[in-house]
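To fix ideas, we give here one paired sequence and structure record:
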Amino acid sequence: MRLTHVRAENFKSFAKLDIRLDDLNVLIGANASGKSNFVQVFTFIRDIVESGLENAISIQGGAQYLRNVNCEGDANLTVELSIEPDYAAAVRPWGVTSSVIRWTLGFSLAFPGGRNVSIAEDELRVEFSNESGADLAIALKPAKKGYEIEGGPEELRGMIADSLEDARQPMLLIEHQFLGSILLFNSLKSIGTYDIDPKGPKNGVFFGAKSDLEPNAENLAIALERILSDDESRRKLRNLLKDVLPFTDGLETQQLQDSSLFFNLRESFSRQPMPAAFLSDGTIDVIALIVILYFERKSLVVIEEPERNLHPSLISRMVELFKDASRLKQIIVSTHNPEIVRYAEPEQLILISRDASGSSHAERPADKAQVQRFLREEIGMHELYLENLLEA
């Protein structure tokens, strides 16, 4: 799954948001510019698909913190995502193999009374091609009674109508699990957001925790246990870690009598493994980043300020890892570090800024004519960023 475009209105600090997404996206901007709110667009969609609209709104802090506080009157909140599968996603609901080309999902939420939420608009469009190469599209949206379904083969329309017949109301189309399994947008659940806290992984974690890495990486030992149980994954992890930290010679996990699990790092100049509790914050961060980039089963990962605790000499290598891993999964990172800006490609940068009214804006600075002139004069993006010239 690859998100190609995101549009939103009145979402948190964004009055209007309209930005394309690439394989690797580096968010830059001042403190409180809205970078975290940009990320929340994706977690909001994921939480809707995973837990339903009501729970997703609650996770965001409630309706009063979801809609832009400066929007006037009864203005709606809207979100629209364009998504492409990262492989030939096959669907066979009517006996003919077809490949999904693109999904476009969009909805609008109204806020009667300021705190209540109702669904004002909802539409899902799926484009695909069949065995003969013909391009087809099917669009769904609520009607006065049930749902309006346009386009696509009659058999598919009938199957979708049957699946929606008993759907509870109100309900966003992307909340419908069976519909998601037919049209393959359940993959939106595989969005991972991470803000690594190196203090957590230094402590043991009890068995029973899930093996997918938690957002703060506190269960890193469990994730490593899964990775190290496979010989090929173990070799890959060892090589990646040694490439970034040459003094390392592999990782191992160890179970204590209280059924907790922790991990050790082997160093090339010592026979004694080093327990995680005594590793530096930067070393923990590097291990967690490698796990996120290469071993987490996520189609899109968002990592907040990954450069924290890292020595400046490691930044260029870290950016190379981002570029390499983005061939396999889509990556969004947020940063204040000019060294990441230096080593990222100019077209990978997304600048988040805030205007005098408090509204956030997102733009690709490399698309601006003035920035292109600076680049032609061999003035680096990191220099423009430090001098605050990207917003000019």
The chain has two domains: 2-22+34-190, 196-299.
